[in-house]
Design goal:
Blueprint: E1 2-6, H1 11-22, E2 26-31, E3 46-49, H2 55-62, E4 67-70, H3 82-103, E5 107-111, H4 144-162, E6 166-172, E7 175-176, H5 181-190, E8 203-204, H6 205-217, E9 223-228, H7 239-247, H8 267-273
Parallel strand pairs: 1-2, 1-4, 2-3, 4-5, 5-6, 6-9, 7-8
Pfam family, one: Epimerase
Protein name: Galactowaldenase
InterPro entries: Epimerase_deHydtase
């Protein structure tokens, strides 16, 4: 397939682009970053610079695509003014989806977020209704990032009602790669007093990229939403015990797939996408959360 990957120079976009190329697809990589004029290497993606909040730019890059993988976004609500986060993330999603429909793309993979339920960046904090969290958990976003991601999923619902496009929204947990495991997860592993907003959840960027390839190639009808989280938790702690220590009985526990389970369930992605995560924090860090020497 000819696949357009937006946000291709970001953490997720780079890994997705490479995984799609390795799977045999033709890839057009799209980002805001200015291109550098160099000889095109065989097998490298074609690159286009575009601001996707502009509808004309979105239409220009979507033309001829069989599938769109939309990773482009301001990744957190705390580094830009709220209106900037909301407008950028929602309008880029709307424009790319509208262009995909008009040009007849058959698949749209929307990178949503684990923050959609609302308990990650709330001004009035609250806890999840149960753990591990799954796709049936109620959605109550407060911040502009999670709200825009929620609305993005609703755009997917509307798209499949009015066209033949098939949509998948992936909600990745906190994305890690070989360069940031120690900085991000190391403190959680060393200090049991830090549960983190996601109950020690994370996902390796290359496992996420595998899920993106599966979603791009999937024939699932309509719009499906999947959490993409590592099946284990950062630090490999006994999840039930850790939850009792931090939260008492305030967060009811559902059945666990394993003692060191994640705070977010990936069971639906495993079942319907055939996703099989292969990587763990243990591939990068020791038991003290320090980077493994090579």
């Amino acid at each position: 397939m000819h696949v357009v990957v937006t946000g291709a120079h970001g953490k997720v976009g780079r890994a997705a682009t490479q995984a799609l190329l390795e799977a045999g697809h033709e890839v057009t990589a799209v980002d805001l970053t200015r291109p550098i004029w160099e000889r095109h290497e065989p097998g490298a993606p074609h690159y286009q610079q575009a601001d996707l909040t502009d509808a004309g730019a979105a239409y220009a890059v979507a033309r001829g695509a069989d599938a769109i993988v939309h990773t482009a976004a301001i990744p957190v609500p705390t580094t830009n003014p709220p209106h900037v986060v909301f407008q950028n993330n929602l309008m880029a999603t709307f424009n790319m989806l509208e262009a995909a429909i008009r040009f007849g793309a058959t698949r749209f993979v929307n990178i949503s977020s684990e923050t959609v339920p609302g308990f990650f960046f709330p001004e009035r904090p609250f806890l999840p209704d149960y753990a591990p969290v799954d796709e049936e958990h109620p959605i109550r976003p407060q911040d502009p990032y999670a709200t825009a991601k929620h609305f993005g999923e609703q755009l997917m619902d509307a798209a499949v009602r009015r066209s033949d496009i098939r949509c998948i929204s992936l909600r990745p947990s906190w994305v890690q790669h070989e360069g940031n495991y120690e900085r991000n997860l190391g403190p959680l592993i060393r200090d049991d007093a830090q549960p983190g907003p996601g109950m020690w959840t994370y996902i390796d960027v290359y496992d996420l990229a595998d899920a993106i390839v599966l979603a791009t190639e999937s024939d699932l009808p309509g719009h499906e939403v999947f959490y993409i989280a590592s099946p284990d938790n950062a630090g490999g702690r006994d999840f039930a015990k850790a939850m009792r220590e931090h939260y008492g009985d305030t967060i009811p526990l559902r059945p666990l797939a394993r003692p060191d389970a994640s705070g977010i369930s990936c069971a639906k992605a495993v079942r319907l996408l055939g996703w099989a995560p292969k990587r763990s924090w243990r591939d990068y860090l020791d038991e003290e959360g320090r980077a493994l020497t090579k």
